[in-house]
């Protein structure tokens, strides 16, 4: 393992071929992430992220032992020093909805199913 980090740019020809993204995978990712990939820009962003992650296939990890954790073996605790506090009432007033002394997060709104989206997107550019 090198003592200092090294960086070599990865060229496009070193990467595996682009991975096509199937419609059912896009549907699943949209449901899991609550992100809309229905537009050309959204799908292009997803494909670009996959292509970026594909660089990991090129990295030479020979001689590198897998890590059990990203944390160091020994965790050193530090002293916590409270510099300011007791502002719970002020902070709770910033929320639109609270119960007892807790924020209430808005519900997740599920994205429409593929069939519903197809009907909605008939006249779109995607």
From TrEMBL:
<dbReference type="GO" id="GO:0006450">
    <property type="term" value="P:regulation of translational fidelity"/>
</dbReference>
<keyword id="KW-0436">Ligase</keyword>
<dbReference type="GO" id="GO:0070681">
    <property type="term" value="P:glutaminyl-tRNAGln biosynthesis via transamidation"/>
</dbReference>
<keyword id="KW-0547">Nucleotide-binding</keyword>
<keyword id="KW-0648">Protein biosynthesis</keyword>
<dbReference type="GO" id="GO:0030956">
    <property type="term" value="C:glutamyl-tRNA(Gln) amidotransferase complex"/>
</dbReference>
<dbReference type="InterPro" id="IPR036113">
    <property type="entry name" value="Asp/Glu-ADT_sf_sub_c"/>
</dbReference>
<dbReference type="InterPro" id="IPR003837">
    <property type="entry name" value="GatC"/>
</dbReference>
<dbReference type="GO" id="GO:0050567">
    <property type="term" value="F:glutaminyl-tRNA synthase (glutamine-hydrolyzing) activity"/>
</dbReference>
<comment type="similarity">
    <text>Belongs to the GatC family.</text>
</comment>
<dbReference type="GO" id="GO:0032543">
    <property type="term" value="P:mitochondrial translation"/>
</dbReference>
<comment type="subunit">
    <text>Subunit of the heterotrimeric GatCAB amidotransferase (AdT) complex, composed of A (QRSL1), B (GATB) and C (GATC) subunits.</text>
</comment>
<dbReference type="GO" id="GO:0005739">
    <property type="term" value="C:mitochondrion"/>
</dbReference>
<keyword id="KW-0496">Mitochondrion</keyword>
<dbReference type="GO" id="GO:0005524">
    <property type="term" value="F:ATP binding"/>
</dbReference>
<comment type="function">
    <text>Allows the formation of correctly charged Gln-tRNA(Gln) through the transamidation of misacylated Glu-tRNA(Gln) in the mitochondria. The reaction takes place in the presence of glutamine and ATP through an activated gamma-phospho-Glu-tRNA(Gln).</text>
</comment>
<dbReference type="Pfam" id="PF02686">
    <property type="entry name" value="GatC"/>
</dbReference>
<protein>
    <recommendedName>
        <fullName>Glutamyl-tRNA(Gln) amidotransferase subunit C, mitochondrial</fullName>
        <ecNumber>6.3.5.-</ecNumber>
    </recommendedName>
</protein>
<keyword id="KW-0067">ATP-binding</keyword>
């Amino acid at each position: 393992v090198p003592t200092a980090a090294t960086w070599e740019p990865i060229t496009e020809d070193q990467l595996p071929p682009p991975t096509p993204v199937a419609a059912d995978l896009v549907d699943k990712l949209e449901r899991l992430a609550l992100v809309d990939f229905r537009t050309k820009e959204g799908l292009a962003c997803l494909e670009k992220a996959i292509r970026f992650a594909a660089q990991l296939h090129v990295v030479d990890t020979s001689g590198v032992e897998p890590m059990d954790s990203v944390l160091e073996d020994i965790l050193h605790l530090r002293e916590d020093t409270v510099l300011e506090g007791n502002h719970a009432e002020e902070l709770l007033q910033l929320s639109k909805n609270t119960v007892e002394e807790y924020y209430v997060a808005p519900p997740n709104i599920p994205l429409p199913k593929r069939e519903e989206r197809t009907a909605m997107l008939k006249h779109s550019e995607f």
